[in-house]
Amino acid sequence: AKNKWYRHWIEVGFEKIELMLNENNGYCFGDQPTLADICLVPQVFNAIRFNVDMSAYPKIAAIYEHCNKLAAFNDAAPQNQP
Q: Which CATH number fits domain 2-80: 3.30.70.330, 3.30.230.10, 3.40.250.10, 1.20.1050.10?
């Protein structure tokens, strides 16, 4: 029940965010990471952890993949923490 509840609220938020995003250079807004990207990436990590179908959010998924190619995002990923 907890996972279903969590997925519901992630999906509600992602639906709105997906509509707000343009086709940019791999980031939420513009050609470099912003606070929006810093906040979005951990949310996507958790969404994947709770089995949210990311195919419904192609812009968000692309931003997540793009950001995780950067050393700063990769170094900050949960799986890379001591």
A: 1.20.1050.10
